[in-house]
Amino acid sequence: MKPIHYNVPVPKDRTLFVQEDILERFYPHMHRHEEYQLIWIVEGTGQLMVDDSLHNFRKDDIFLLGSNQPHVFKNEQVGGLVRSVSVFFNVKGRLAGMLDLPELGVLLDFISNSQRGFRVPNTYLSQVRRRIEILKKSDHMDQLINFFYLLKALNSVSAHLKPLSGASFSENEPHATIRINKLCRYIDEHFKDNIALSEVAEQAHLTPQAFCRFFKKSTGKTFVSYLNDIRVREACRLLGTGTHDCISTVAYLCGFNSITNFNRVFRNVIGESPKEYINKYITLLYQ
Predict the structure, then answer these.
(1) Which residues are in the HTH araC/xylS-type domain (predicted)?
(2) pTM for the complete prediction?
(3) Best exposed site among 106, 116, 212, 219 by fewest CB in 10 Å?
């Protein structure tokens, strides 16, 4: 399903846009927009689909959606109302010059590392919610200043944030970044094969033990966990197309050597079985 490009109605006299919505339902189509979107679910429950991942949401949840990250919210209650507050901002627009200031470099790095989005952990919801409320009530220069305080609050808990989809990289050294990107591309290109740890370690010119330490430090994931995530994301994509009647076929196409292993890994990554995922996916698309 190709996402629709959505133009956020940012006023011409604004650097960022705070929008409060009270609706019967969210915008119903998978879509994307250039602006990052920080959204606070004030009222409502349902599911958020981001890329090929599903996330449940409830009252007071807060999500950041990356620039051009495909997503759609579906609320559960028919006939009820959903209420949300969204902060839209574009780091390539008017903010670009300000975020390029040395003093704000840490915030730019935080945003760049959050391209795959995140959910704010429950422990920090009240802190972030308070900042959004202050931002919503402010105007002109105060709004811009309070926006930076909001980013600062989010950055302060960045160690506890997990991407809504995909993997993140934490290695900062240039040569190490080039090496890990090369390794991840290799895995991305060969995940459907019977790829072994020793094979990937050889690509890095490291022993398997040294490779495991380097990979975990660079990505925050073990090699097996990273490989399983890629295989499961591909399985989600294939299951979502509806072109494969047999789940075992999808499992083998994604590099799993047994349906039992596939079901176990899929549940560990997604939190439900492949059959449950298909049923929720179909329900979400055709509500």
Answers:
(1) 181-280
(2) 0.60
(3) 106
